[in-house]
Write a structure and sequence with these properties.
There is one protein chain. The chain has 2 domains: 137 residues, 3-Layer(aba) Sandwich (Creatine Amidinohydrolase, Chain A, domain 1), CATH 3.40.350.10; 242 residues, Creatinase/methionine aminopeptidase superfamily (Creatine Amidinohydrolase, Alpha-Beta Complex), CATH 3.90.230.10. It has 383 residues and is α+β, with helices and mostly antiparallel strands. A hairpin with a 4-residue loop joins strand 15 and strand 16.
Length: 383
């Protein structure tokens, strides 16, 4: 795809401005962003995948030989070199001649220590520059293609939330709800892949373990779906921040439900504050404002209602779960059209937590919500 060569060319232009000869890229999401290559295992199995981009010599992908065929099928690079476990210097072979006597950029925030140490050993008299901010800035504003991905990811998320709601019943285990959610998301993703995309190797299966809490686990923010049985009158929290991963594009999407009725009426009051805090954040969002100003409006609602200072109210997403900017105090990034953000509203007390969250696209003068599911109090009580 032309989009990958355009991204590499843009990175090379930025490298030239920073007086860098070579970029060493190891973050799997950055590698995908620049080349279209994904291997699913990467460093989890101790096998580095390394992308080297030179100003004058193009792009080189160093990949484990076990994934060489996949790399040849999907990677948009000039050259691929495969290495095998225990043979020779493995992944190190190509690095000295690519980096020697060069000004080198690395992702200081994410490079595996084993790769960083090796580079430092033979470039001891060379200065290494951090590429992380250059790449994160490149990825902030989404292309038209990425906006399409975001909207399709929203459709997948919507199908998942509808399935989750439909399967919440008295006496059902959390993991059974999670299975229904995963099935619905996978089927919707497969449908979209078949209609709109040519990458026959991309999996439609949802990723990550379902974040879900119910009853007395509701305050455990990232609790995974377990064998716990859901009962009438209990609150249920569904979060798709890791599961909505369509064509590698991630979104945030959260809802709090109750089964049958709200047994504890104080929970209704807390939920109302969570909803209002998200509304305050959304009302503050438009191009030209700072990320921290959105968080300020959200936090103001929560604190003026008598609750503790909250977590961040949102973050950017894309090919990674967490991108730049974060909607939090201290982040002065100016919001611009083309950013994709997850916007939350949440309140936590000792024995209850309410949260709603949606993903949006910043437009020329406002925003577009791409995750759609009812959230008024009367609409989240499942009958």
């Amino acid at each position: 795809m032309k989009i990958f060569s355009q991204r590499i060319e843009l990175l090379q232009q930025k490298m030239e401005k920073e007086h860098l000869d070579v970029a060493v890229i190891t973050d799997e999401d950055n590698i995908y962003y620049l080349t279209g290559y994904y291997d699913y295992l990467h460093m989890e199995f101790g096998r580095p995948t390394i992308l080297i981009i030179s100003i004058n010599k193009g792009s080189l992908l160093i990949t484990p030989s076990i994934d060489e065929n996949m790399a040849k099928s999907v990677a948009h690079v000039d050259r691929i070199v495969a290495w095998n476990d225990g043979l020779g210097d493995e992944w190190r072979v190509e690095i000295p001649k690519a980096l020697l006597k060069k000004h080198v950029g690395i992702e200081l925030n994410s490079i595996p220590q084993i790769v960083k140490s090796y580079i430092e050993d033979f470039t001891e008299n060379q200065s290494l520059k951090n590429l992380s901010s250059i790449l994160s800035d490149m990825r902030m504003i989404k292309s038209n293609y990425e906006i399409q991905l975001a909207k399709h990811a929203g459709q997948v998320a919507n199908a998942m939330m509808s399935a989750g709601r439909a399967n919440i019943k008295d006496g059902i285990a959390e993991f059974e709800v999670a299975l229904a959610i995963s099935e619905a998301g996978t089927k919707k993703a497969a449908e979209l892949l078949k209609i709109y995309y040519q990458d026959k190797y991309m999996s439609p299966n949802t990723h990550f373990l379902q974040i879900m809490a119910s009853g007395d686990t509701i305050t455990k923010t990232h609790h995974r779906a377990s064998t716990r049985i859901i009962r009438y009158g209990e609150p249920i929290f569904l979060c798709f921040c890791g599961m909505t991963n369509f064509h590698r594009f991630k979104l945030g999407f959260d809802r709090t439900f109750w089964l049958g009725e709200i047994a504890d009426k104080l929970q209704e009051k807390i939920y109302d504050v969570a909803i209002t805090s998200q509304e305050a954040a959304l009302n503050a969002i438009r191009p030209g404002v700072t990320a921290e100003s959105v968080h300020k409006e959200y936090a103001k609602v929560i604190q003026e209602s008598g609750y503790d200072y909250p977590f961040r109210c949102g973050r950017a997403t894309g090919y990674s779960f967490l991108e730049k900017p974060q909607l939090v105090k201290g982040d002065k990034t100016i919001l611009k059209p083309g950013m994709v953000l997850a916007i939350d509203g949440s309140v936590t007390v000792d024995n209850f937590r309410a949260q709603v969250g949606d993903s949006i696209i910043i437009t020329q003068d406002s925003y577009e919500i791409i995750t759609i599911h009812p959230k008024k109090i009367e609409e989240v009580i499942i009958q």
